[in-house]
Amino acid sequence: MTSLAKLPRFSHILRSITATNVRYIPPSRLSSHFTYYPDTVADSLGETARLNLFQSINQALDTALATDDSAVIFGEDVGFGGVFRCTVDLQDRYGKDRVFNTPLCEQGIAGFAIGVAVGGATAIAEMQFADYIFPAFDQIVNEAAKYRYRSGNLFDCGRLTFRAPCGAVGHGALYHSQSPEAYFAHTPGLKIVVPRGPVKAKGLLLSCIRDNNPCIFLEPKVLYRAAVEMVPTRDYTLPLSSADILDEGEDVTLIGWGTQVHVLREVAQLARQQLNVSCEVIDLVTILPWDREAVFESVKKTGRLLVAHEAPITNGFGAEIAATVQKECFLHLEAPVERVCGFDTPFPHIFEPFYLPDKWRCLSAIKKLVNY
Amino acid sequence: MLSKVIKSVLKPNQNQMRVLAPFMTSTVMKESGTTSATFDTRPYKLHKLEEAPNTSTTCTRDEALLYYKQMQIIRRMESASGNLYKEKAVRGFCHLYSGQEAICVGIKAALEPQDSVITAYRDHGWAYVMGCSVTSVMAELTGRTQGIVRGKGGSMHMYCKNFYGGNGIVGAQVPVGAGVALAQQYLGNGGLCIALYGDGAANQGQVFEAYNIAKLKDLPCIFICENNGYGMGTSVDRASASTMYYTRGDYVPGLWIDGMDILSVKEAIKYCKDYCSAGKGPLVLEVATYRYSGHSMSDPGTSYRTRDEIQEVRQTRDPIMLFKENIISANLVTAEELKQIDADVRKEVDEAVKVAKTDKEIAVHELAADVYSAPIENTIRGTTPFEPYTHQRLSKVINWH
């Protein structure tokens, strides 16, 4: 098993892209409309391959199995690759005792995964959709998150990662679109990570798998095929609880995660063009524990904050950020913190385009922030 | 007055053999203007039950025509749904019932108006037999105003009186079904609840919680596992330590039924109704069936089973084909009559598809409708500031008496 210390951590060399790299995805009733902003990596990271999100996750899982003999992957239909193809070929490569299908029983999968991890192996469990994670809520919140605390650190299930596809996909309706990060963010002991693209996903997933705390890794499913980047083929990890500043700016801080990061980057461009407002775009990356310092530093500089996420506004994670920022940055704020989020309705079937915190709603919030 | 019933060549306990046997037969009986025939039922398997359902059942000519039509409507509706999905007219998810038609038609045939049904997401056929029109099912799939819930639910969420839906989460409907049964017991309306789930969902923990509480309170609940051989892409043998789903209620008696024979299904449900009305509590049924399509539209359905296997079922066990052969050879109906039904069905479904493609979508203000019964705030939080959506209630609750 590769020593953690030897693995490169290179988030600082992830570079921002130029406008010419932007792949435009035309707005359509059948897919969420956002413009994907790919990450590029420094040449020093060696060989790269053109991968989409599911392929980069597949590569991370491949690496995890190759570098850790005790690692096992299980979930519904993962044996033949899973519904999103993230585990494709892994069973052929590593055998049926390391990559295997479970029955359709999320609570059982979660409990089983906790047992595997506390027993000394590395457990990588897949929830087929984040919307299906709720039968496992008790196991994750009460068993996994509290194992270390309740045993006075004699036992832990830190070598445990739950992967789950989350977020809007254009046609997912009520039970294939939700973003449950805030439910779990209410639980000390867990880590929650949401990648914005293939390069980040590979490094972050390997970090989660190797982290000594139970992690929930939420993969924005609309990016599985839509997000394509040149991804280093080597083994690498990226730091958890470290936000990325993707576009530097002076007037307004924009915070998002997952797919929403790409919406916000386009919003930043629009704000510059249409309002002559300079926005700083932050990808929070890790929801719990989140990178408070990076956020405070940015908000103290800009004096204005917009948080946007797909989950409903009330008690979404934006609420926690807004509350913390008003406490820590009160005298720096030029306007009340704005949140642009999903509505307080179930995730709608035919009205997804209206429900999503799209670029126009975000841009309108920026206007309010600067005109306050 | 019944003529001699020819015994099945299948002896009890040989029914696992997947062979097409001349299990039926019949004689046309004309009596006071009705025409009916008697058929042998497929052998049942029992778990902790003393008595089996009847070994024969009677079907009238009108019933035969109705059941045939209902099964054909569902088959046709599902192939139209699949096409609409491929044309991208259906958003959301879409799980087809083709191959399993005899179950919903057979069960419904034995139910009374006060009985309830709850199922999972493979619910188009169920919505139809419980009373939704073909047009309302198809329009729901495409998210249009004439849809059952005005397009707000989509494929997995269809409802009507005493049909508690279409539910999106694997297994979650099973304890709900037990709760509906409790309500029926408490209200004393003489009804029972049919709670359906698949062989995949049979491994969810909450299913066993539901068995326990139902038996504890002897609820009039029939748990029905529709075993179509595959839970998503995993075959039953690879997902379940015991594939004898009718025994998995342990202390809850169970019954195995050949779900490809509609009359065996109907006869079994009649038996279950008697059992439940006698206050004996719940039953766990396993109905053996097969789905021709993949689990959902994103599953071609051929990566974990062979095309030959699907073809073989179509040729030897297809529920519509079997029923058709039976009722024709029993002289209950003629081939021409069935042909006419086929033509009518085609027309009805085609017209429904037309509506489903052309009907209007509901207005965007309905996005904020029906979130709460009576909200404290009139507008829904988070909706757009320039055009806030007002909360409203659009339909009347149909299941409160």
From TrEMBL, chain A:
One of its GO terms (molecular function) is branched-chain 2-oxo acid dehydrogenase activity. It comes from Halocaridina rubra. Its EC number is 1.2.4.4. Keywords: Mitochondrion, Oxidoreductase, Transit peptide. It comes from the Eukaryota. It catalyses: N(6)-[(R)-lipoyl]-L-lysyl-[protein] + 3-methyl-2-oxobutanoate + H(+) = N(6)-[(R)-S(8)-2-methylpropanoyldihydrolipoyl]-L-lysyl-[protein] + CO2. GO terms for biological process: branched-chain amino acid catabolic process; response to nutrient. This is 2-oxoisovalerate dehydrogenase subunit beta, mitochondrial.
TrEMBL record, chain B:
SUPFAM superfamilies: Thiamin diphosphate-binding fold (THDP-binding). The gene is PDHA1. It comes from the Eukaryota. It comes from Halocaridina rubra (Hawaiian red shrimp). The keyword Mitochondrion does not apply. GO terms for molecular function: pyruvate dehydrogenase (acetyl-transferring) activity. InterPro entries: DH_E1, PDH_E1_Alpha_Subunit, Pyrv_DH_E1_asu_subgrp-y, THDP-binding. Its EC number is 1.2.4.1. The pyruvate dehydrogenase complex catalyzes the overall conversion of pyruvate to acetyl-CoA and CO(2). PANTHER family: PYRUVATE DEHYDROGENASE E1 COMPONENT SUBUNIT ALPHA, PYRUVATE DEHYDROGENASE E1 COMPONENT, ALPHA SUBUNIT BACTERIAL AND ORGANELLAR. This is Pyruvate dehydrogenase E1 component subunit alpha. It holds the Pfam family E1_dh.
